[in-house]
Amino acid sequence: MSAKLDHSAAEIHQSVAIPAGRKQLSGDLDIPAGAHGLVLFAHGSGSSRHSPRNRYVAEVIRDAGIGTLLFDLLTEAEEAEDRFTGQLRFDIDLLAGRLVQATKWVDRDPNVKHLGVGYFGSSTGAAAALIASVDSTVPVQAIVSRGGRPDLAGESLPHVTAPTLLIVGGLDDVVIELNQRAFQQLRGEKAVEIIPGATHLFEEKGALAQVARLAAEWFRQHLHAR
């Protein structure tokens, strides 16, 4: 990025490259003027930063005065491989590690390092977000899971301290049960919101809008400048 900006008024809209070991991850960084927080998106299995659902949620979050970073957890080559094998999308430790690396990148950049960090995770990305919040040396102030698999975070669940909101569709019976089990293991501030009549992808009219509003409010309450 270029020269340091005036944090009180800076507005940023950039495509970014995030180092991940010897690889680079593509991302879209959008910060509204006067933002105090930044939400990193961990997309679900088989998805990318171009996910229309996550991009819609990100827009609502930005309307609430909070920045967003949508980025690909896999490189283009890895995504091509995963389309055939379907294995990397379920490598939760790999995905969590990529999220930790992206968080370190945020912490090093003078234009955004002052922003409080939150995670928004979908599907398997929710488990990655929970694990990353435990492993990150940068404090994670809030987590929201949309139709997630927090159960896949396993032994990390009792160590999550970031306030966590689990959002599940009311018709997503199996995932509701998995979220409830994971919820019992969380030890910090936590909440569950079940959207009536919604299925796993929240495709029903108004369902995703409810998710976005809940997420934006959760982050608005818990994110503050570092």
Task: From the 3D structure, determine the CATH topology.
Answer: Rossmann fold
Judged by helices, strands and strand pairing, the structural class is alpha/beta
Record field, number of beta strands: 8
Instruction: Report the end-to-end length measured between terminal Cα atoms.
Output: 20 Å
Order of helices and strands: EEEHEHHEHEEHEH
Mean pLDDT: 91
Strand content: 15-25%
User: What does the overall shape look like?
Assistant: globular
Tell me which CATH architecture applies here. 3-Layer(aba) Sandwich
Main attributes of the structure:
Rossmann fold; 6 helices; globular; alpha/beta; 226 residues
Note down, in words, how this protein is organized.
This protein has an eight-stranded mixed β-sheet with strand order 1-2-4-3-5-6-7-8, sandwiched between helices. Helix 1 (52-63) crosses helix 6. Helix content is 35%, strand content 24%. It starts with 11 loop residues before the first strand and ends with a helix. By secondary structure, it is of the alpha/beta class. It has six helices and eight strands. The protein has one domain (23-222): Alpha/Beta hydrolase fold, catalytic domain (Rossmann fold).
In brief:
This protein is of the alpha/beta class and about 230 residues long. Helix content is about 35%, strand content about 25%.
Write the layout of secondary structure elements.
Layout: E1 12-20, E2 23-31, E3 37-42, H1 52-63, E4 67-71, H2 76-85, H3 92-108, E5 116-122, H4 124-135, E6 140-146, E7 164-169, H5 173-185, E8 190-195, H6 207-222
Parallel strand pairs: 3-4, 3-5, 5-6, 6-7, 7-8
Antiparallel strand pairs: 1-2, 2-4
Helix pairs in contact: 1-6, 3-4
